TrEMBL record:
This is Inosine-uridine preferring nucleoside hydrolase. The keyword Hydrolase applies. It comes from the Bacteria. Keywords: Glycosidase, Hydrolase. Coiled coil: none annotated. It comes from Ligilactobacillus salitolerans. One of its GO terms (molecular function) is purine nucleosidase activity. GO terms for cellular component: cytosol.
Amino acid sequence: MTKIILDCDPGHDDAFAIMMAVAAPEIEVAAVTTSAGNQTPDKTLNNALRMLTLLRQTNIPVAGGNQKPLLQDLMIAESVHGSTGLDGTELPEPGFAPQKQTAVELIAQTLRESEEKVTLVVTGPMTNAALFLSVYPDLKEKIEQIVFMGGAKGFGNWSPAAEFNIAVDPEAAKIVVDSGIPLVMAGLNVTHQAQILKEDIEAIRTIGNPVAVAMAELLDFYGLYYGQEKWGFKGIPVHDPVTITWLLHPEYFTTLKKNVDIELNGKLTRGETVVDQWNLTDKPENTTILMDIDREKFVETIKTSLHAFD
Ligand code: BDR
Ligand code: CA
């Protein structure tokens, strides 16, 4: 059993990560925390509550995170996720309230109360993770690993060099990669292979339970952005659930172990995840980088997860 805290900014693909995590018998979701990213922090928190209500998981503690990135102003991805952050379907109103604590406090409490180490899964900007590490360094040893969706080896999607989650809060990402905690990076190299095709969306819809139907509708909307010709994708890259798929099925992936650092100053490259491919520095190999995924098995794993809600 892998115990996780899921820090996310739902977000269509975050919604898939939440769904797969709660569906998996091998994963215990100890807490869900939300960050400002795909939408404003009030909306991402509300979306996490609405998703967990749809999934009938109203007993999982949820807390909202920081209002903005550590240093720069918040950038949101309304062009991808719409004005609610989860446009495309009608989700139920939240059936429960968030914790009174902040995300950072909930992460700390969850770790303190856990007998075993916990995996932190981050599928949004790393603001909460970085604040947590700064405020509670004594609890760092309770984190088994940080598995994050973010970055890429060699390119970006928000700027030519930077992926969205890192671009939103590069200083936070820098604190996380320098933390010494083992890292797993699900960056664009792998998530651009984790594509859901049109026929997969129809197969998901056909599963027919209310969760599957809602997820298919979310994909219909999300596909409007990723279906644009400029991307040249056959399907829709569904980034965030690659983290959960890694926890469930590492055998579906190829990986590289390298140093990853964050560019903070480059005029063209701020927010780049710089990978030391040839070990040219003496920096530690701090990150397992996911490089390739078996796409068909990825889609099968999503479908299996959805059957948990039959
Ligand atoms: C990442 O950015 C967000 O829009 C998605 O939810 C994902 O976490 C992909 O770059
Ligand atoms: Ca996300």
